[in-house]
UniProtKB/TrEMBL annotation:
Domain Thioesterase: 124-196
Organism superkingdom: Eukaryota
Presence of keyword Translocase: no
Reactions this protein catalyses: (9Z)-octadecenoyl-CoA + H2O = (9Z)-octadecenoate + CoA + H(+); (5Z,8Z,11Z,14Z)-eicosatetraenoyl-CoA + H2O = (5Z,8Z,11Z,14Z)-eicosatetraenoate + CoA + H(+); dodecanoyl-CoA + H2O = dodecanoate + CoA + H(+); tetradecanoyl-CoA + H2O = tetradecanoate + CoA + H(+)
Stated name of the protein: Acyl-coenzyme A thioesterase THEM4
GO biological process, one term: apoptotic process
Signal sequence annotation: none
Protein family (similarity comment): Belongs to the THEM4/THEM5 thioesterase family.
Enzyme class at the top of the EC tree: hydrolase
């Protein structure tokens, strides 16, 4: 929403976010979420301190901590405008709506994912690249949580059945093995009730120091 300084124009309400330095947490429910999405979110969400098995990961549109740490590869302008791929569309519900929950004890991550209309591939269905993106993101978060900072070295995907645009699916990942710098993660995307398998994937993640990003 815009702040209008012109006296003759109608006064518009100013979003408090304009004056707030608190970043938006995209993993919290918004009005674009379907009842199914909200139901699944509530199923995994736990009260803080409630001792539940699942912990929701907050999700921002950039990695604040590292945003200004680089500068060797990217100009300051590019760096300051960089946004996390899955969170770079502001319109709620248009693209990737998701929340990731981590179960540290079981080394598992579950993501409730609602695919918006900008993710179309085959008519009415989600683009394979968008599916790969959410898999990379959730398996990557799972590996990061267990092994620290990692990069994806290998991702294998079997697309078993198409995912309808607007539908809500579950992305369920588990760390299978950690060996030295290597972390293997497997992943399944199913319908919300688990009855239909959409996608199966495996990923290999390699632990790196953050400096790897700037030295190649
Ligand atoms: C801590 C708290 C955490 C809190 C929770 C956090 C939540 C986080 C939330 C949200 C996360 C969002 C997550 C986003 C996720 C997105 C991830 C991406 O998209 S990453 C971008 C795409 N990937 C690249 O651009 C990599 C490019 N590749 C490389 O940089 C290098 O190739 C790299 C680092 C992968 C490996 O290079 P080397 O030089 O460091 O190491 P070498 O010696 O080559 O490999 C190490 C071992 O891995 C094997 N290896 C490497 N690549 C392999 C491959 N493709 N297939 C099989 N093995 C491979 C090698 O054979 C070697 O194994 P041997 O140690 O000898 O046993």
């Amino acid at each position: 929403m815009l702040l209008c300084a012109c006296a003759s124009a109608p006064v518009q309400q100013v979003s408090p976010r304009l004056f707030s330095s608190a970043p938006r947490d995209y993993s919290l429910p918004n009005d674009s979420w379907s009842a199914e999405m909200r139901r699944l979110y509530d199923q995994y969400d736990q009260e803080p301190g409630g001792g539940g098995r699942w912990k929701r990961l907050p999700s921002y549109n950039r990695f604040l901590k590292y945003a200004t740490a680089g500068g060797q590869c990217l100009s300051r302008l590019v760096q300051s405008r960089a946004r996390l791929f899955t969170r770079n569309i502001k319109e709620p519900g248009a693209a990737f709506e998701y929340a990731i929950f981590i179960n540290e004890e079981e080394k598992r991550a579950v993501c409730v994912f609602q695919a918006g209309h900008l993710l179309e591939g085959p008519p009415g269905h989600v683009h394979g690249g968008a599916i790969a993106t959410i898999i990379d993101n959730v398996t990557g978060a799972c590996a990061t949580y267990i092994s620290g900072f990692v990069l994806t070295a290998n991702l294998n995907i079997n697309y078993c059945s198409p995912i309808s645009l607007g539908s809500v699916v579950l992305v369920d990942c588990a760390v299978d093995r950690v060996e030295g710098r290597k972390t293997w993660v497997s992943c399944r995307i199913t319908s919300a009730d688990g009855s239909k398998l959409h996608t199966e994937a495996t990923g290999l993640f390699v632990s790196v120091g953050v400096s790897h990003l700037f030295t190649g």
